[in-house]
Structure to design on (87 residues):
């Protein structure tokens, strides 16, 4: 769309999400995107390594947390060292 920064989240939702949503309708159910509206007071858990995106429909405060413990430390370090090689 004209006047929208092509690197912005708005651009992605306006241009790509609609196309993806249409294509995904024919995918097996277990591979389709999950889409929902989170209401005030609700919590959403996104499992590790799940690709996701968020579109806030109004002013929002979000609290996110990435958890590392002795059971997933190796996976966390592997992912961190690939995405942040200067560490």
């Amino acid at each position: 769309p004209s006047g929208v920064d092509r690197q912005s989240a708005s651009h992605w939702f306006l241009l790509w999400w609609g196309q993806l949503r249409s294509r995904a309708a024919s995918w097996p159910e277990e591979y389709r995107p999950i889409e929902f509206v989170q209401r005030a007071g609700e919590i959403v858990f996104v499992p590790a390594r799940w690709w996701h995106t968020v579109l806030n429909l109004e002013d929002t405060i979000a609290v996110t947390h990435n958890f590392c413990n002795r059971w997933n430390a190796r996976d966390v370090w592997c992912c961190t060292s690939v995405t942040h090689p200067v560490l």
Notes: The radius of gyration is 17 Å. DSSP finds two helices and no strands in the chain.
